[in-house]
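Example (one chain per record):
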Amino acid sequence: MVILASNENWKLSLTFIFQCLLASVVLGIGIWTKPSPSDNLVVRIDNKVLFIIFLIASLLGVFLELLAKKTKQHHFVNGVGNAIELLLLPSAFLAAINLLCLFPMVRFQLSSELLGYPVIILFIAALFPLTFVHVQRAQSLGQRILLLILFNIAFDVASIQLGLLSVKLLSNTIIEIISNVGFILIIGWVMSWWGFKIPELLKFRLNANARIVVLIGALSFWMIAIGTSAFSRADSWIRFLNDWSFKIQSVPVTVIIATITGSFIEEWLFRYAILWQLVKHYRQISKNPILISVVISSILFGVAHSTNVSNGQAIQSTIFQVIMAIVVGVFLASIYLYTGVFWFSVILHSAADLLSGLLVKGASFTAGIPDFFHVELYGLYYVILLAISFYLLIRKRKTVELTVDQMIDRSGSNF
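Predicted structure:
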């Protein structure tokens, strides 16, 4: 881990405390004055209880940071408090920033579109001190993985809230793109604090022992699998060979960019941040740390998709999607580790996301309850994908270890 000088450490800690106090004051004033919703306001307070919760979370942040300075700490209190901070403080800061924008907007009659960009930039900047104090506290593997996952959830919630709180701010797509870039930067910063280096994003050359024929075979089957999902209209094995539709629908470029950055974020979180945390841990206690790390990170990747049930998705479809995501996670990780090129997993992930309902209407199998034919079809695909993955991870282990060696060498002794 990178260690700051004590005075710099204290400055960041004081900055975090000041942010929490400032957010408390702004939220308190907002709750007291209760500005009424209107089209010329950046923010509207439709739920007073929500802002009271944000106020309490801000005050809790001050209390926990002061408590962290003590020699003895209560682990349960800290654990629950940290989780509350991570889940609520990003939204609390965002609400306070929105409220602060009321004053120049109303005073100088500025447009909310103009203030949209400063709101997002200030929000992302405000997250760095919050992230810093939690990076300092997270020492164990479980704490670090939980921190990454909670922060991802909090960032998503805050991004959604930005669209809900703001009137005529920015399109949800622009908000999503900017938020995705901010999340990527912050997670990269967090990993550097823990002694990890980012993947070589400018590297496109395969590992020395990687065979282009093997890679082409794996990628070809992947394209067949997602192509079937996108263009096949068959509902039985009999119609599978002749019921196809190759129509691509028109989609705004910003939506495509948002989808690609979203795919990058998932790879950045699960195939970089979480995967390498696991590899670092298990290489000290296991004979096959790579395989174990790939499986665990993929299970977490799959479980993360279970939240789609909250969007009205059927439970059966969600379970099917979780299983699919676990298999896909193993496959993407194996491709990345075999080739040593992080972009391969991003491109394959993006292709799947673009073709599973965005560019091809009705392609997503999660739109309804999957029938028996599709369970059989995708089940066959999953078995083959796992066979390819374990072939790369086990039979081509020496090639996979080249990627690990490169990351270890670039990360120094802290890895």
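Caption: The first helix runs from residue 6 to 33.
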